[in-house]
Design brief:
The complex is a heterodimer of chains A (490) and B (440). Chain A is built from 18 helices and 2 strands. Chain A is mainly alpha-helical. Chain A folds into 2 domains: 185 residues, no CATH class; 248 residues, Orthogonal Bundle (MetI-like fold). Chain A has a two-stranded antiparallel sheet. Chain B has 440 residues and is mainly alpha-helical. In chain B, 65% of the residues lie in helices and 5% in strands. Chain B has a 3-stranded antiparallel β-sheet with strand order 2-1-3. Chain B is extended. The chains are: A mainly alpha (490), B mainly alpha (440). Chains A and B meet through helix 2, helix 8, helix 10, helix 11 and helix 12 of A and helix 1, helix 10, helix 11, helix 12 and helix 13 of B.
């Protein structure tokens, strides 16, 4: 039974449970709701929770676990000699899945009967041809072992689905029966319901942890796979990034790190002075009217999607720089070869970060106590002297924190560098050359047709993990600094 | 006093220097604001000047004689027979129509009708065929049909293509441009509003003139549906627990630090998570809006949790105390009193989170929402969630990558539409906040 129908049945059961339990509770109280322990609706809700929650939870876990179990069992069926021919288990398994999906489609479209799919023999039937007829294209002829594995795969999935339907329905029925059986006027329905809701609330809150664990684990596993295939010293300490599909790729993170840091540096060189001075002006000089229109306008820059900045870099800023520094350009120099360059991406990213730096710094400067300003002004310092010698030093830790947060943003930014920075990994100090970054490489390694067992694809996970650790480190450091500073003046 | 003549009213050199420094410093601040605003203006100006063109398209209106001899030799109007006539069967009709226009308007041209017909989009014959298949009773009559002009012709009218720029262009030549001028004067060729760009599907990279963002919009819509259905309840539940019930201990501390860090994780990392967990592990269909929605949900959750907690925090404790005082349980106090009072703030935060998710591109690249052409708008909810589709920002990226500059105009136009959505959402959020926010 499809999951969707199962879901509907369980939900229908719980709706029935709601009304049934409510009326049962009322009946046990003799129609007088005052002699019930809880309000009538709690008895109904109790039935809903016990019918739906455990069964749906089991269903969710089952849907999640079944493919893994089936994969494991089926991959044990595949004989070793098949794998020796330069193919890997993953590749063969994806073949198996494709054939199994193809057979599913065939049954759905009525081209084959269920019995037929089980009786197929690769030696007798032209499986590829028959699947091709209904629009399922297979890359090569189906080998007998793969077909047998696919048939087993389908059989196990079908059996698993049947068991799941059975188990889920039994659990739902048990929950239903229990809730109905418990329902009488002395049953503390509200307490039970509230405890159950509490469990749900805690579950929702721990989803955040689960996400983090998911991020770390998913990348960690693939990274470990990557280091099995590729030397870790080359990844961390090599100097060349040159993926190819001959199997001798040089995958080193250093040139990518250099590109990332260079672009981030330029972005910060644009964003920090502009953002900081804007924040100083807004918080120290500007009247309420200037502030009320300039601040929201600047913050619009932060709300614009990064794809817009990417397009701006690719189609406006890049060609503009090329017209200045390229061959036959306005400055008469030939320093730039194409529109994509470190400077292009850096400047545009800087624009994006201006409001980020300015609004964070604005908050921090505003948090500096007025008495410190008054003291300085009273001693005869001008306003700018007060700002430079009193306010900024006092706010410095917070401002550093803000800059670190902006840096973490810059390092993790993807669309601007994908569209504006270029694709060549190299060490160069020339900001007009195109260079590449960690995020750009993640996108290009994972959006190609590579399979998930080659180091060229898996390296993306190692890069992702590095990126995650890097940005996390910067964030934690920044939050630590900001928090420590805040304690000083509160 | 060696300098008894100096008055406090006439500043000395040192004071002048200090005052000049003061003015300079203030100028720096103003300049910084100016730079920021100038960048905003530049960005908006670029978007508007490059993108508005996409909403207009060049059309050529021709009187096409739908010859029965060509389209329906048997004269039965049987749909199966009509379908056997391929687009090649329709091309001569279009050529004839051009010949007729030339004689009617008295245009003098040396172009052959074959070259004249090249001014139309490559899909012209197919469009005509679809029209005939939909209305077989028109066969034998002469109908006025509006064809899409090719992207080069369109570019010529919009100033993107000029006589100088087409020297090496195989698709169009100077004689054809002259003919375009003549057609324009005769009123046959016109530029007008193009609804297909807003509602239509993407087209292959040979036909930029036919590309639209409508189907990608549907993809974005279904993703937002998933985000709303998951992120709002989960986010609110998590915030209620953390704000109202959680004991102060190391576990809640970890959860809190975790959430604030998740908010700062680069979006591409969520894409990697989606690829590894939803596609490689759970085998959900690639490029499906469901997967995109799940990934964006994980990404938006921290934003929603943070804003929900802020609005729960702003409800004064006296409300809770009053509810508890008349015998409500803690759960009832929260769900019946605190939550409704915090609802406007929660809604505002959710809309802002959704707007963020709507514009996000990077994770969508990794789960495969680019690189193919979704030709039909999804029929229902299941199809909308499960069948491959694109999303607005992914579609814009796709267009920006294509070689033909005609697609750049589409990309900018797509950005205008995307920004209209974002501005609308943010305006709603601001209005909600102004209208319902209560200061205690």
């Amino acid at each position: 039974m499809p999951v969707f129908w199962l879901l509907l049945i369980v939900l229908a059961m719980s709706v029935v449970g709601f009304f049934f339990s409510r009326s049962r509770a009322m009946k046990s109280a003799g129609g007088d709701s005052r002699s019930l322990h809880s309000l009538p609706k709690y008895y109904g809700t109790n039935a809903v929770i016990f019918t739906a929650v455990p069964s749906l939870l089991v269903m969710a876990i089952w849907v999640f676990v079944q493919p893994v179990v089936v994969d494991q069992t089926v991959s044990n069926v595949i004989p070793q000699h098949l794998l020796a021919e330069g193919s890997t288990l993953d590749l063969t398994m994806s073949d198996v899945r494709r054939v199994a999906d193809g057979l599913d489609t065939a049954v759905k479209m009525g081209a084959m009967s269920e019995q037929e799919t089980r009786d197929l023999r690769a030696s007798l039937n032209d499986v590829r041809g028959r699947l091709g007829e209904i629009g399922v294209a297979l890359g090569s002829d189906v080998r007998p072992e793969v077909l047998r594995a696919a048939q087993k795969y389908r059989a196990m999935s079908a059996a698993g689905n049947q068991y799941m339907t059975f188990v889920v329905l039994v659990i739902a029925a048990l929950g239903f029966a229990w809730a109905v059986w418990k329902t009488n006027k002395d049953f503390r329905a509200r307490n039970t319901v509230e405890n159950a809701i509490m469990v749900l609330l805690v579950g929702a809150a721990s989803l955040a942890i689960l996400t983090t664990v998911g991020i770390v684990l998913s990348m960690l596993f693939e990274t470990v796979n990557f280091f099995d295939l590729h030397d870790w010293t080359d990844f961390f300490f090599g100097t060349t990034w040159a993926p190819n599909f001959r199997g001798d790729s040089e995958l080193s993170i250093l040139p990518l790190l250099w590109g990332t840091f260079y672009i981030s540096l330029i972005a910060l060189a644009v964003a920090v002075p502009v953002g900081l001075f804007a924040a100083i002006y807004l918080s120290e000089y500007a009247g309420p009217r200037t502030r009320s229109f300039a601040k929201p306008l600047l913050e619009i820059l932060a709300g614009i999607p990064t794809i817009v900045y990417g397009l701006f870099a690719l189609l406006t800023v890049g060609p503009l720089l090329l017209a200045g520094f390229g061959e036959g350009g306005a400055f008469g120099v030939d320093w730039m070869k194409g529109a994509t360059s470190v400077l292009t991406a850096g400047v545009v990213m800087g624009i994006m970060l201006i409001p980020f730096v300015s609004s964070l710094s604005d908050d921090i400067i505003n948090a500096v106590p007025q008495s410190m300003r008054d003291g300085s002004l009273g001693l005869g310092a001008t306003q700018s002297e007060t700002i430079r010698q009193v306010v900024i030093p006092a706010a410095l830790p917070g401002i550093v924190g803000a800059i670190l947060l902006a840096a973490s943003r810059a390092i993790g930014e993807t669309m601007i560098v994908v569209m504006g920075a270029g694709a060549i990994a190299k060490f160069s100090a020339n900001p007009l050359e195109s260079m590449t970054t960690i995020t750009t490489r993640i996108v290009s390694q994972l959006t190609g047709d590579g399979d998930f067992s080659s180091p060229e694809t898996l390296v993306a996970f190692a890069l992702g993990l590095t990126l995650f650790v890097l940005t996390l480190g910067l964030n934690v450091l920044a939050l630590y600094i900001v928090r420590k500073y805040r304690e000083q003046y509160e | 006093m060696t300098d008894a003549t100096t008055s406090l009213l006439t500043p000395d050199a040192h004071t002048k220097k200090r005052n000049a420094a003061e003015t300079r410093f203030k100028m720096y601040g103003m300049a910084a604001i100016g730079v920021g605003l100038a960048m905003l203006l530049l960005l908006m100006g670029t978007i508007l000047s490059n993108g508005t063109g996409a909403f207009q398209q060049t059309f050529i209106t021709l009187k096409v004689e739908l010859l029965e001899a060509k389209l329906d030799k048997k004269g039965t109007r049987n749909l199966e027979d009509l379908k056997k006539v391929t687009t090649f069967g329709y091309t001569p009709l279009i050529k004839n129509a051009f010949g007729q226009v030339v004689t009617e308007t008295g245009i003098e041209t040396k172009l052959k009708t074959k070259d004249q017909a090249k001014l139309l989009s490559k899909s012209a014959a197919a469009d005509l065929r679809n029209y005939v298949l939909a209305k077989p009773d028109q066969i034998g009559k002469t109908v006025e049909f509006t064809f899409l002009a090719s992207s080069r012709v369109d570019g010529y009218l919009k100033g993107r293509v000029s006589r100088a720029s087409i020297e090496n262009d195989k698709n169009i030549n100077v004689a054809q441009l002259d003919f375009v001028d003549q057609l324009k004067e005769a009123g046959v060729l016109k530029k007008r509003f193009n609804i297909n760009f807003i509602l239509g599907a993407d087209a292959s990279d040979q036909r930029p003139e036919a590309a639209g963002i409508g189907v990608a919009m549907a993809g974005s819509f279904f993703m937002m549906l998933v985000v709303l259905a998951l992120a709002l309840p989960i986010g609110v539940a998590a915030s209620i627990y953390l704000e109202e019930f959680a004991p102060k201990n190391w576990i809640t501390d970890i959860i809190e630090v975790n959430i604030s860090n998740l908010a700062a994780v680069p979006s591409i990392v969520f894409g990697i998570l989606g690829l590894a967990v939803f596609i490689n592990y759970m085998h959900l269909p690639q490029s499906a809006p469901l997967v995109g929605g799940l990934v964006l949900t994980l990404m938006t959750l921290p934003t929603i949790i943070i804003s929900t907690r802020a609005s729960l925090k702003s409800v004064p404790p006296s409300i809770r105390d009053a509810a508890l005082g008349i015998g409500a349980s803690k759960m009832q106090a929260v769900f019946h009193h605190v939550l409704p009072l915090a609802a406007p703030g929660i809604l505002t935060g959710t809309i802002i989170g959704l707007a963020q998710a709507l514009g996000e591109t990077a994770p969508l690249l990794l789960i495969g929402m680019i690189g193919f052409i979704a030709s039909n708008a999804p029929g229902g909810i299941t199809e909308g969630l499960m069948s491959p589709n694109s999303a607005m920002p992914a579609q814009i990226y796709e267009w920006a990558k294509r070689a033909d500059p005609a697609f750049y105009e589409r990309a900018w136009g797509g950005i205008i539409i995307l920004l209209v959505f974002l501005i609308t959402m943010n305006t709603i959020a601001v209005i909600l906040r102004r209208r319902f926010e209560r200061r205690w």
